[in-house]
Amino acid sequence: MFIRLAIKSLLDRKSSVLVSLLAMSVSIFVLLGVEHIRHQTKENFSNTVSGVDLIVGARTGSVNLLLYSVFRVGNPTNNIRWETYEKVASSRKVDWAIPISLGDSHKGYRVLGTSTDYFKYFSYSDKQLLEFKDGRAFKDLFDVVLGAEVARKLNYQLGDRLVLAHGVAATSFSLHEDRPFDVVGILRPTGTPVDQTLHVSLAGIEAIHIDWQHGVRIPNSSAPIDNFDDIDLKPKSITAFMLGLKEKMATFRVQRGINNYKGEPLLAILPGVALSELWQMMGILEKTLLLVSALVFLAACLGVSAMLLASIRERQKEIHLLRVIGAPPRFLFFLVELEAFFITLFGVILGSLLLMGSLLVSRDYLVEKFGLHINVSIFTENSIHMILMVFLASFIAAALPSFVSYLRARKGLD
Fold first, then answer.
1. Which of 220, 235, 269 lies at the terminal end of a domain, its last residue?
2. Do 75 and 188 share a domain, yes or no?
3. Is the domain of 78 the same as that of 215?
4. Predicted local confidence at residue 326, as pLDDT
5. pTM score, whole prediction
6. Parallel, antiparallel, or unpaired for β 123-124 and 216-217?
7. d(CA 254, CA 53)
8. Is residue 147, in this structure, part of any structural domain at all?
9. What are the tens digits of pLDDT across the range 58-82?
10. How many structural domains is the chain composed of?
């Protein structure tokens, strides 16, 4: 009877209740949406690189090294000599090593010079290896493998020919037009910076710069492609390299050895630790989003409270009738609280369904545009705790109109 009475009371005021329900649903949509996307973004961020034990570069800050080696953002303070890379990579503690050479671009996308071990060992998410959507890894000198976004945005297909530019500017006039590259492979989407990268061999990087010096082509010089077979294209230096170790227990020992290397100043970082540091630097944005969504929910709670408070004045006859049939004042108190509970409950259900539907519709768009793999299932431990807090906040917000109803019932009793 108690529940039926609360439902009938709400239906009797369906216009004002519907407005409060919509406000509550929108606030739940925003609150759970921000929390879910924040959690999923952090998870995607942490999974940008996986299975790499150490990243080594010239001595700089750990975040800076992570940014340019993994996210292709910024530039290194210096390069690493090739002899240093070979010495570290040949250590008996090292299982595999991936060299990284940056500095060129194509229409705003970074070019990564590396070895074929990159496609064999580099992984993301939960140690998921790179996969080819079309084609294969580079094999010839002027082969290029495209990330998924590069191929999609620039509409490249296998067999297309493209020209790299010197430097990383979106618009460059220093083009390697005499040595174009052929597209031989296109990677599947990963939701990581790999999608926005062009991959070529280290020898290819050396070949296009063989007649360049200090970022400028040497005047009156040319090196016909036919002559490259007779030229040593081993790089003199690289930007950074990634290491996979045979024993995880040796990670800190190897890191300490690299950081104390006397041949040149080096820095070895643990990707997971550096990613955590970088995420903490973005913490203010995360907290701002949560604050905005909390304020939206607070406004919805106050709206429900105002609606219930206003309805008390319209329910004088109902309150008097309930008192006549013997309903105690606390009955009216809990009746109003139950009405607020139902508004919140339906608001949570409607808001959650709306959020899951929106994520389902926009999932492919989020992957293509922002590289975000968002799970449609929004019910996690954090979201459940947040929903419980929503009900608690709703109970508190409804306390004032409930108490007013209680006082009116007591006054009628007196």
1. 269
2. yes
3. yes
4. 58
5. 0.73
6. unpaired
7. 10
8. yes
9. 999 898 999 999 988 888 889 999 9
10. 2
